[in-house]
Amino acid sequence: MTTAGSAREPKYQRIAGALRRDIAEGRYAPGERLPGENDLMAEHAVARMTARQALAVLQAEGLAEARKGAGVFVREFEPIRRRGIQRLSPEQWGSGRSVWDADIAERDLAVEVIAVSEVSGDEVPSAVVNILGTAEVWLRRRRFVLDGKPVMLSVSYFPAALVAGTPITETDTGPGGAYARLAERGHAPEHFREEIRSRMPTADEALRLKLAAGTPVMLIWRTAFSAEGTAVEVNEMMLDAASYVLEYDFEG
Amino acid sequence: MTTAGSAREPKYQRIAGALRRDIAEGRYAPGERLPGENDLMAEHAVARMTARQALAVLQAEGLAEARKGAGVFVREFEPIRRRGIQRLSPEQWGSGRSVWDADIAERDLAVEVIAVSEVSGDEVPSAVVNILGTAEVWLRRRRFVLDGKPVMLSVSYFPAALVAGTPITETDTGPGGAYARLAERGHAPEHFREEIRSRMPTADEALRLKLAAGTPVMLIWRTAFSAEGTAVEVNEMMLDAASYVLEYDFEG
DNA sequence: AAGTGGTCTAGACCACGTT
DNA sequence: ACGTGGTCTAGACCACTTC
Prior knowledge:
- Chains A, B: It comes from Actinacidiphila rubida.
- Chains A, B: One of its GO terms (biological process) is negative regulation of DNA-templated transcription.
- Chains A, B: One of its GO terms (molecular function) is DNA-binding transcription factor activity.
- The structure is a homodimer.
- Chain A is of the alpha+beta class.
- Helices cover 25% and strands 34% of the residues of chain A.
- Chain A folds into two domains: 11-74, Winged helix-like DNA-binding domain superfamily/Winged helix DNA-binding domain (Arc Repressor Mutant, subunit A, Orthogonal Bundle); 80-247, 3-Layer(aba) Sandwich (Chorismate lyase), CATH 3.40.1410.10.
- The first copy, chain A, has eight helices and ten strands.
- In chain A, the strands form three sheets. In chain A, strands 4-5-6-9-8-7 form a six-stranded antiparallel beta sheet.
- In chain A, helix 1 crosses helix 3 and helix 2 (37-44) crosses helix 3.
- The two termini of chain A are 36 Å apart.
- Strand 10 (244-251) of chain A pairs antiparallel with strand 7 of chain B, so a sheet runs across the interface.
- The structure holds a DNA duplex.
């Protein structure tokens, strides 16, 4: 049940369909340049706007990517495998490694700490207040950059009462990261919940993640609970969906 | 005499931004109609294509939805909460309930069995062959429809050697579903792995899920392993991302 | 019947990247 | 310098929904 190509398929869909088939069948390889607006106008005898519309379809599907002044190219990607469960075991952060280390072995990674600050009241999203049970929190805002491209934005919220005076309130949280510090204070995270959504980014979000058109984001909201069942961290992550595969292993 | 539009931001982005703000601040409620092309042309003194482009931005972000002949409307969502782990415990399918029952309590659900067939060789995706270790498989293709809208497409693959002669090869798998039948044969699924990706759908996929523009899909590839560690099922699911929140609970 | 979005044309100027 | 995609205009006809 593909195309159906029935009587009245719009021209731009027809053109887009032909290009899509060519990409799928490898006639245009990842990274290769596709026929441009002028090529399509000549080849199919259509107006510029119609050729544009055809290329826009492929970009909206995430199959192609326009580079100003250069052309439209077939997209290529190589996703990061993020293991949702093993990566959070104490063996990971207990040994002085951050959980992120578990994800990528030998690629050029930079973790930028954008902000570490104490906030309260209206400045804290009400969903976070509800989960943590307090509006007095420390916030850590970070950006993860892989091979020069931002792949994830992250905001972690910690109850101020638990982390005041620890390195969690500083740029460098020390060996093992924030979870190791929480454990030293007797609030080791033991139970986790991750909620996953996906949607298209706003213009602003697309800018901050340098997303190509047609790329969704995945939103992960993680809550970490201590042994007593109290929430000790809420972490809102926004991932470039083209850069990630999430993996969860569990017993039935 | 064009333009030059005072600032660097294109007109259509300016118009889209104003509408986006209005939506965020509740001046247009979910389901409500937005100003149409003609309204925007008059209000901002622009050409039809420019007004269209502004509305296209909001649709691409998943914020708005066009209905032919009617107008452009603010989208509304009410996601299904899919619990990735508890839903697959033996208590669920062991008691004669299908795992799906765990997701939605009181909404109008229909599970359509599209196809049940034996396939082999080239007809089986090579990724599936690699995991199951055989190219002789039974396939079950289903569609899940909630409140009249398709929300998930699913294809399950089972090794033919394990399921031949069982109700898994028929339309109705019986109480507890396929997993209960596997358990009766001594191949109870015990370990699961789910891989999650997200991307924009192709035109064909959007049609089959009746997706609004600007809606990504989430792809879940689940592999079920028996106690001996052999793969007994591979399930490829494609979900309407606007209809789902995935949830995973686990210990550190 | 009126209004809506969907498609399409045939021009134009611009900012940008490659050459 | 040239070709590329990005933006924009001012028209047009169509299919569809709503009244």
